[in-house]
Design brief:
With 256 residues, this protein is mostly helical. The longest helix has 25 residues.
Length: 256
């Protein structure tokens, strides 16, 4: 994802961060200015090419410390490192605002305490919605939102993978209403949960069932149809209220 103005902004911030990292004198002066301006004595963050979140964190930290950075550069009389212009500061603030949902999503999906695969498609829908353009957007914001949408639209687009992810979402009692899908898709996904289970149970009948089923078939006429039984189970599941977003779906399944 390349947006020229944003790329130039990151390069400018990166040079300043590198300067304060490699010079112990500069780092000491920055610390003095942080103390004088009553700012947190946080170290500036350098980004890593393989981690987009680090670019977010670099810009966020730079904005937090920009008054100390400006003051330190003035005290050091360093003319090689340019301060951000007011326009660039506004762009940086816009970048942080736009990228914040992505940072939150990355944090959520990195958790190891609860299932996360069921959240992928709802989160993708939420991000795409947050990247819709509005009349107040600047040209740079529009370009950045467009780049994010174009990149994200292609993700998880394989039909087989989408089917798997939809089923995972349907089986998560936090998201089982599938609000990101139309009614027809909603019904199809729940139907697709039933059919494979019917076939699986039919294929895995025990040897004793296979042996005696022809002889005692008439005696089984009062037993409920397997497909209807599964439909009833799914209907009962769908009728239950969704649990809260911060609840543990595995604990819910254990209790239910």
């Amino acid at each position: 994802m390349a947006v020229n103005q944003v790329s130039r902004l990151l390069g400018k911030i990166r040079r300043a961060v590198y300067f304060f990292h490699r010079s112990t004198t500069a780092a000491h002066v920055l610390g003095q200015k942080q103390e004088m301006l009553h700012l947190p004595k946080h170290r500036l963050i350098n980004d890593v090419a393989t981690r987009w979140n680090s670019s977010y964190e670099m810009v966020e930290r730079y904005l937090e410390q920009q008054s100390a950075v400006y003051s330190a550069l003035s005290a050091l009389k360093n003319k090689d490192i340019a301060n951000l212009t007011d326009q660039e500061v506004r762009v940086a603030e816009n970048v942080i605002e736009i990228m914040k949902p992505l940072k939150t999503v990355t944090t959520i999906l990195s958790t190891e305490t609860a299932p996360s695969v069921s959240m992928i498609l709802p989160l993708k829908t939420m991000i795409l919605k947050s990247m819709e353009q509005n009349d107040e957007d600047t040209p740079t914001v529009r370009e950045l939102k467009h780049a994010i949408r174009e990149n994200l639209q292609k993700r998880y687009s394989d039909a087989g993978l989408q089917d798997f992810l939809h089923k995972c979402t349907a089986l998560d009692p936090r998201f089982k209403t599938l609000p990101h899908l139309d009614r027809a898709s909603h019904l199809r996904i729940y139907e697709d949960l039933i059919i494979p289970e019917v076939l699986s149970r039919a294929e895995n009948r025990s040897a004793i069932e296979e042996l005696f089923s022809p002889l005692f078939k008439a005696g089984q006429s009062n037993q409920p149809d397997l497909k209807q039984q599964l439909k009833d189970e799914v209907s009962a599941y769908m009728a239950k209220e969704c649990i809260s977003i911060d609840s543990n779906p595995l604990a819910w399944w254990k209790d239910n």
